Amino acid sequence: MDLAALKLKHLLLEKMPLLQKRINAMPEASRQSAEKSLKLLTEFDGRMAVDAPGAALYAIFLDSLTRHVFADELGQGQAWESFMAANAITYSAQQDHMLGREDSPFWDNVQTPEREDKWDIVVRTLAMSWQQGLLLLGADPASWRWGKIHTYTWESGSTKMKPWLPTVPAMAVGALGRYLDRGPFPAPGSTNTVNVAGYTIGEGFKVWNVPAMRLIVDFSLAEPLYLVNAGGQSGNPASRHYDDGIPLYLSGENRSLAFHAPVLVSQQFNRTLILQPAACRRCVRNTEIKEGAVHGDWRPDAGY
Fold first, then answer.
1. What is the pLDDT of residues 9-64, one digit of tens each?
2. Among 205, 84, 222, 87, residue whose Cα is nearest residue 144
3. Is residue 72 within 8 Å of residue 81, measured between CB atoms?
4. Architecture category of domain 3-147 in CATH
């Protein structure tokens, strides 16, 4: 649930008479687009599900509003990049202006002779967001999907360095990425949801903040721990455990990690790795191989 989306919904409903008056004064094509955006956003329940048309339009609206409000003053250079970085880690000027700040000087478009207020920019953004949705997601709004533009990709460190590499090394890294990287996959959530999937508002929808794991501890249960990690346990791309956790992660489900019930423990753990001090190496060599466990033995496919 994205609470900022719900607050926007209630704000639009509160300002409906004013918005409708501004929309009616727009050219016909823009008026129709703005009305369609307004209708979908005021019907949206705030759930950022991968198959939600309203989630896709809300994100497009916020992305477009960010550019409408700030790009005319900041441009697209270092000032814009610093603004994006600051909003990603601390204060969210985009959402602050979306939900308030009617007196902010940023509402006025300095590139036009007239002086705009907040609701001029909001109705323009409503119209343009609908048109952008058609371009990104197709002509049928009922088939719009948040997960089509908002995606997880597990990238290796070399892939993340690719934009700063010379041409030939970048090509080599690109080829290697087909072996090391996984994705893209449809991603639910947003920057504001508990199941966070953060992206840089104002610069598209590519997820860069993927939770490393989801952990639940319910002490009322005999086996209280539930845990799923992102990707897999192994850092070796040749291992089946390199990416075998992705389907469970994408499903939104979780996995019980047993520590007490012998049956569950035997089902989940079939190898034991014992680390011994150097003085006990002889102990490791002489360790007995027991049923269901290998003591003192490490194997490349074990997923460690």
1. 999 999 999 999 999 999 999 999 999 999 999 999 999 999 999 999 999 999 99
2. 205
3. no
4. Orthogonal Bundle (1.10)
